[in-house]
Amino acid sequence: MQQILKHNIYYLFLLVSLMAGHTSCSEYQKALKSDEVKQKYEVAMQLYEEGLAENKKSKHKKALRLIEQVLPQYRGKPQGEHISFVHANSYYILGAYFDSAYQFERFTKSYPNSQKYEEAFYKSALSYYNESPRYSLDQTETLKAMNKFQEYISKFPDGEHIGDANEKYAALREKLEKKAYEIAKSYHHREDYKAAIEAFDNFIENNPGSKFRDEAYFYKLDAAYILAINSYAQLVEERLIAAQTYYEDYLKYFPQGGYVEQANTIAKEIKERLNNNSENNLG
Predict the structure, then answer these.
(1) How many domains does the chain have?
(2) Do residue 207 and residue 250 come from a single domain?
(3) Outer membrane lipoprotein BamD-like domain location, by residue (predicted)?
(4) Rounded Cα–Cα distance for residues 59 and 8 (Å)
(5) What is the DSSP string of 222-255?
(6) Is residue 184 in some structural domain?
(7) Best exposed site among 6, 222, 259, 267 by fewest CB in 10 Å?
(8) No. of helices (H) and no. of strands (E), the chain
(9) Does 48 map to a domain?
(10) Do 229 and 241 touch, CB atoms closer than 8 A?
(11) What is 42-55 written as a DSSP string?
(12) Is the domain of 245 the same as that of 282?
């Protein structure tokens, strides 16, 4: 019996100890309804820190609500820098990336000498990165994120996040490349071969290091060949010769490419058709 009582006392003591270090719901409600700016600030900061320690978004939601009530009163004051960063970071933690991007940018403009400057600058880029949609959609946020990462790389060449910044920038660039490539390919699928050739030309010129270049060179060749054989008789030879040069380009840049076999088949057909044309002309 005594042992059970000791255990109960121990657990009660432990529970009280844990509760003592946490902001209660009643404290939050009192601060929310209070007109005391200091009280709101202190409860907000405690909730924010607890949210970080416990990984609880519910705490950050409460902190954010209080912060937004008192933030204007702290601008220009010693606590202004801290509360402004906490404000932006709370949005980021909650996944409200449009808001966090704006607030982190505002922070870096207001506090360029802050110890949190690099982190805030980087998180503004991450915010846009997290809003970057799949490649087939509008890429405005992707471009914003790329610009921000590029700025970060320029400002902080030895920064804490330089490796991650370079990786994410490369991933965003690849997304734009894929979008441009898929647009060009869509012309091919719609059998608009002239537009496809022009689009693949632009893609190849604008994306010299892209992983989609192998495919772009091949589908440009394929589009040129199909265009040629479906042209008016007087245009066939000229367009076959153009397609032949695209085959030579493909083989030059991708001798071991993924489409060599198909390209060789097209080249063989081009050669046969050109030979037939020459024989017909001689006859």
Answers:
(1) 3
(2) yes
(3) 44-231
(4) 29
(5) HHHHHHHHTS-HHHHHHHHHHHHHHHHHHHHH-T
(6) no
(7) 6
(8) 13, 0
(9) yes
(10) no
(11) HHHHHHHHHHHHHT
(12) yes
Which residue shows structure tokens 């909730």? 47
Of 134, 127, 132, 156, residue with least CA distance to 143: 132
CA distance readout (Å), 212 to 20, 142, 178, 207, 253 = 59, 19, 7, 9, 13
Domain boundary among 126, 151, 178: 178
The model's pLDDT over 62-105, given as tens digits with 9 standing for 90+, comes to: 999 999 999 999 988 989 999 999 999 999 999 999 999 999 99
Alpha-carbon torsion 28, 30, 32, 37, what sign? negative
pLDDT confidence tier of residue 122, bands split at 50, 70 and 90:
very high
Q: What is the CATH number of the domain that holds 126?
A: 1.25.40.10
Cα separation of 61 and 56, whole Å?
A: 9
Please give the Cα distance from 162 to 225 (Å, whole number).
46
Q: What is the pTM of this model?
A: 0.83
How far is Cα 182 from Cα 1, in angstroms, rounded to an integer? 75
Give the chain's end-to-end CA distance (angstroms, integer).
Answer: 116
Domain of 275? 191-283
148 within a domain of the structure (yes/no):
yes
Position 80 in a domain: no
Q: Are residues 257 and 280 in the same domain?
A: yes
